[in-house]
Amino acid sequence: MTIRTFLAIDLPSSLQLAIVQHIRTVKRELPRLSWSKPENLHINLKFLGDTTENQVDQIRQAVESAISRVSPFVVELKGFGVFPDDRSPRVLWIGLDGALDYLIALAGCVGQAVVPLGFPQEDRPFRPHLTVARVKKDRRAVSRTLHGLGVFTAPFFCGSLSIERVTLFKSELRPDGAVYTKLWDVSLNA
Fold first, then answer.
1. Closest CA to 20 of 177, 145, 130
2. What is the rounded distance in angstroms from the CA atom of residue 158 to the CA atom of residue 151?
3. How large is the average pLDDT for residues 66-92?
4. Concatenated DSSP letters of 96-152
5. What is the DSSP letter of 87?
């Protein structure tokens, strides 16, 4: 049996709540977007997909070894953005600032660690962000609303995050949305 998994940076509940407070105006104006549940907010490092029980332990060992020499660092959550572009958004995200070189290196380190276990290397560069909503339809109308609210130009700071651990999550897709369950986490070299 397999489960869907991904490696990520988990957020403390205090930061999850701060994000919810900061995005409430946008959420009120765009209720039809598929908004991330507060408890599901995270910084994705590597989507793994189908994973066997045996691989769960192997991934832990590989990641633990790979990050053993990486020191904790801090990033800031600030600004909104979208993928792929602001004229036809599919994903609304909160941007990250600060020690991004360290975060990019951490994602690369973690991604490389699982390649020998059968998980493919990413074919596109890692773009640090925190997804808050997905746009299913009416992308142009969503774009107009986002621009009208000034989300791309208004100053926005949600808080700082000390990155000290990497977490493996199980992802279950349910009719009422995805449910993420923490399987394990490993510490960066403190």
1. 130
2. 13
3. 95
4. EEESHHHHHHHHHHHHHHHGGGTPPPPSS----EEEEEE--S-HHHHHHHHHHHTTT
5. T
pLDDT for res 119: 98
49 within 8 A of 5, measured Cβ to Cβ: yes
In CATH, what is the architecture of 2-170? Alpha-Beta Complex (3.90)
Residue 121 tokens, joined: 């290397």
d(C-alpha 23, C-alpha 19), whole Å: 6
Instruction: State the Cα–Cα distance between residues 16 and 171, nearest whole angstrom.
Output: 18
- Tell me: the pLDDT tens digits for 144-174? 999 999 998 888 899 999 999 999 999 999 9
